[in-house]
Design goal:
The complex is a heterotrimer of chains A (290), B (274) and C (266). In chain A, 73% of the residues lie in helices and 0% in strands. Chain A is built from ten helices and no strands. Chain A is globular, with a radius of gyration of 25 Å. Chain A has one domain (73-285): MetI-like (MetI-like fold, Orthogonal Bundle), CATH 1.10.3720. Chain B is mainly α and 274 residues long. Chain B has a single domain (49-273), classed as Orthogonal Bundle (MetI-like fold), CATH 1.10.3720.10. With 266 residues, chain C is of the alpha/beta class. In chain C, strand 1 (12-23) and strand 2 form a beta hairpin. Classes of the chains: A mainly alpha (290), B mainly alpha (274), C alpha/beta (266). Chains in contact: A-B, A-C, B-C. At the A-B interface, helix 1, helix 2, helix 3, helix 4 and helix 5 of A face helix 1, helix 2, helix 4, helix 5 and helix 6 of B.
């Protein structure tokens, strides 16, 4: 029998390799099944209480010291949801235009052709610098950006929005540049042939073609921004995450669940909205989720 | 609708810059920027002193934290991939129905029909629920229940990515070519068998592409999950915040460079798989 | 259980009794009756749209008749439970028109899936990753018989159309079927190869003793190799018999467009 070398396909090695990797990680981190249950009776009680609270979310504050004329908890929760939404919107409204510019600079489909040595060199430089820049801002997590910005600027809405917007414009810009390069190169080629300028090509030929996928991907990132914006609460920015953390600190599990349910509801609604948009545009996140 | 949202977001965010005065902010910023310079350099003014300082930070705890971060991310993504796979045939719009692919399954009773009718929406909704909670939040809650150990972080990442992989892989499955699967079904395989032996091998490479994309994201997320108190880079960053800004910057850059490396690795891998 | 009797003792593979199959208003198969006996080799002929594919789907139990009775290997299809139906299907091998191979698996992996129905999900998965020596030897012999033994470990999407067809045939043989059904197996290959393929199918049927039922649009091929032809036109059977009995009148009834159809086509 010939071709023995190709006999053991890639798949077998990948499966074996992943199983091995998991065992290595589990061993080095000390992951044992015993760790999957609460360690002592105090934690057991807490777990029980926590999940009982899930069935019985708070409709009123658990804290007796809240003044009687304070806003009701559901109103506070909804306010938290809207604050979360607000940060996500603000961040995305910064990130999408930035990403469009970065994506334009970091793609090569619009380059004029033929172009001389010097122009080409400059274009190359711009291409690599923008790619490097995107990769830099993307590689630092939004929470860490938030820590940096809060330290530098003090607690302010703008700091939170910029902290979210930076890594998001990095990711968006990278995907935009890839979409532009992969999806629309032929359209750009055709326009180049009839003598359009680079910016014209981008606006007329490339952008409309890549638009459905750009929108779908931006929306997907918006969903991510919502989650991240909720997490920003944990570093002190007023979103629903902050309320969750504060209630949790006092062991008001029922309040925690009220906020959790509201957060989940919001994200599910946005998720379904996104699914509707994808259906209308006939795109899938699959095409461009990387 | 988007425009309304955006203008609302900006209009209601006053004061945009918080409540500190501009002067005070500038002072803050100057202090902050000054302390980002490594401590030995601040003293001697010679950037050559930064190297041994960085090396010490790296060997002291940085390397260990790096490995933990990697380990948590890898364990979590493999765990969630393994959990998603058996759920996919139950979530698929074409397999999870009384008549898979619209082909005759045999004489079924009404209960079975109902089960298959509900299975797809149910599993897909479970995916939505899993991905609706941010991993940081899940980890935060789990740590209070399971105690401060590695499992909560792994579980949190695994649960969140279960939802994400469920959606990404699910879309791949919906768009996959069905002819081999239908042939296998016609030869008497059940739904699970059809999925495992024809659909899955057919989309294997695309699954891997998403898998590594999520792994990369997991590494990034595992970094900050450490801020909850476990020895990953996030913890080091959180600890040095406010006192040793220079160290914090070092850890941030260390984490960033790891992610850039992971990025390059998975980019090469994807190109190879395509 | 409605009695999955030991099939090889019985003499009939298919009994079709006044079967009608509808798609909305359209009767794709209209009041059709015939019997195919075990070991017979039958060609379904007729122009495209005549109902051949629907008939194949009825025979391989992917559909049940809307009216009439369909018995496959002594089992009345419409009353079988899912489990019984799956048992029955393991004995029916189908080669679909587009072959239904998994393109990024090797030939041996595709062929081994022929036994997937009998072996269940876990065992098949194991077969894919670690094929047993006995299976590998048997598959090698089958591929040798169909003429592509050197492609045992080649990925299917690197094979030519003709070679892929051989892999699909090998997979059907490895299934050890009672019946082999093929839907337009030669529609996408050149005439010389088409002749080889049909010949191979008939020879294999004789060697292994399975019933062969092939839908063909090429009348000459059908006449050359098959002892029995069933001609279909707009859901009806217009001819059923030996090729020698096929008169030119029958052919006209099968293939010639009526005035009314010409109008539609124009």
């Amino acid at each position: 029998m010939k071709a023995q070398a190709g006999k053991y396909g890639l798949k077998r090695w990948v499966v074996a390799g992943l199983a091995l990797a998991f065992l290595c990680c589990a061993w080095s981190l000390g992951l044992t099944p015993a760790g999957l249950v609460p360690p002592d009776s105090q934690h057991w009680d807490r777990t029980g209480e926590f999940f009982r609270a899930a069935l019985n979310p708070a409709l009123d504050y658990e804290d007796e010291n809240v003044p009687a004329d304070a806003e009701p908890i559901w109103w506070k929760g909804i306010k938290g949801v809207f604050l979360t939404l607000k940060f996500a919107f603000g961040a995305m409204s910064l990130a999408v235009p930035t990403a469009l510019v970065l994506g334009f600079l970091g793609s090569s489909a619009w380059w004029p052709e033929p172009c001389g040595g010097k122009t080409r060199l400059i274009l190359r430089a711009v291409y690599f610098i923008s790619r490097l820049f995107m990769s830099l801002i993307r590689s630092i997590h939004e929470l860490i950006w938030a820590l940096l910005f809060l330290s530098a600027m003090g607690v302010s809405p703008l700091a939170g929005m910029i902290a979210l917007a930076l890594p998001f414009s990095g990711t968006l810009g990278k995907v935009f540049s890839e979409l532009i390069d992969e999806e629309a190169r032929d359209a750009a080629q055709a326009l180049k042939a009839i003598g359009h300028g680079p910016v014209q090509i981008f606006l007329v030929g490339i952008l409309p073609r890549a638009m459905p996928n750009l929108i779908t991907y931006s929306f997907y990132r918006f969903e991510c921004a919502l989650r991240s914006s909720a997490v920003l609460g944990f570093v002190g920015i007023e979103t629903i995450g902050l309320y969750i953390e504060l209630s949790h600190e006092e062991f008001y599990y029922r309040e925690v669940w009220t906020y959790l349910y509201l957060l989940i509801a919001m994200i599910v609604v946005v998720d379904l909205w996104g699914a509707g948009i994808r259906r209308r545009l006939h795109t899938s996140t699959g095409g461009c989720a990387i | 609708m988007v425009l309304v949202g955006v203008s609302w977001a900006w209009a209601t965010s006053t004061p945009l810059l918080g409540r500190l005065s501009a002067e005070r902010r500038w002072l803050n910023f100057k202090n902050f920027a000054g302390e980002l310079v490594p401590a030995p350099v601040r003293k001697s003014g010679d950037w050559g002193d930064a190297l041994p300082w960085a090396w010490e930070l790296l060997t002291d705890e940085g390397f260990l934290a790096l490995m933990t971060t990697f380990g948590i991310a890898t364990a979590a993504i493999i765990l969630s991939g393994t959990l998603v796979l058996p759920l996919l045939p139950l979530a698929s719009r074409r397999l999870a129905r009384v008549d898979p692919f619209g082909l005759r399954a045999g004489k079924t009773n009404r209960a079975a029909g109902l089960v298959w009718k509900l299975s797809g929406p149910f599993v897909r909704f479970a995916f939505v629920l899993c991905r609706s909670l941010p991993e940081y939040l899940i980890a935060f809650l789990l740590i209070s229940l399971l105690g401060l150990q590695v499992w909560p972080l792994v579980l949190a990442l695994a649960i969140h990515n279960l939802g994400i992989l469920g959606r990404l892989w699910g879309e791949v499955v919906e768009n996959a070519d069905d002819s081999a699967a239908m042939r296998a079904y016609a030869a008497g395989q059940g739904r699970v068998g059809v999925f495992a032996t024809t659909t899955l091998p057919g989309v294997f490479n695309r699954f891997l592409i998403y898998f590594f994309y999520r792994w990369e994201t997991c590494v990034k997320d595992a970094t900050v999950l450490g801020m909850l108190g476990l020895l990953t880079l996030g913890k080091l960053i959180a600890l040095s915040k406010g006192f040793f800004w220079d160290q914090m910057l070092f850890y941030v850059l260390l984490g960033g460079s790891v992610i850039v490396l992971g990025d390059l690795f998975s980019m090469a891998l994807r190109r190879w798989l395509r | 259980m409605s009695g999955l009797l030991f099939v090889s003792l019985m003499s009939s593979s298919f009994q079709i009794d006044q079967v009608t199959c509808r798609f909305g208003e359209l009767r794709a198969v209209n009041n059709v009756s015939f019997e195919i006996r075990k070991g017979e080799q039958v060609a379904l002929i007729g122009p495209s749209g005549s109902g051949k594919t629907t008939l194949i789907q009825l025979l391989n139990t992917m559909r049940v008749p809307d009216e009439g009775r369909l018995t496959v290997l002594q089992n009345e299809v419409s009353v079988l439970t899912p489990r019984e139906l799956r048992r029955l299907r393991t004995t029916l091998a189908t080669i679909p028109q587009h072959l239904g191979l998994v393109p990024n698996l090797t030939a041996i992996q595709n062929v081994i899936l022929g036994q997937g129905g009998r072996r269940g999900a876990l065992r098949s998965l194991r077969d894919l990753l670690f094929p047993s020596r006995a299976d590998a030897l048997e598959i090698h012999a089958i591929l040798d018989r169909v003429g592509i033994e050197e492609k045992l470990y080649s990925r299917v999407n690197r094979l030519s159309g003709g070679q892929q067809q051989r892999v699909a045939i090998a997979r059907a043989i490895f299934q050890h079927p009672e019946v082999l059904l093929a839907d337009e197996p030669v529609s996408s290959v050149d005439p010389a190869r088409a002749r080889d393929t049909v010949k191979l199918l008939c020879e294999l049927s004789a060697e292994h003793g399975f019933t062969l039922c092939v839908s063909l649009h090429d009348l000459a091929l059908a006449r050359e190799f098959f002892p029995r032809l069933i001609g279909m036109r707009r859901g009806h059977i217009v001819f059923d018999g030996a090729p020698e009995a096929l008169s030119s009148e029958d052919q006209r009834a099968l293939y010639e467009l009526s005035n009314e159809e010409m109008m539609v086509d124009a």
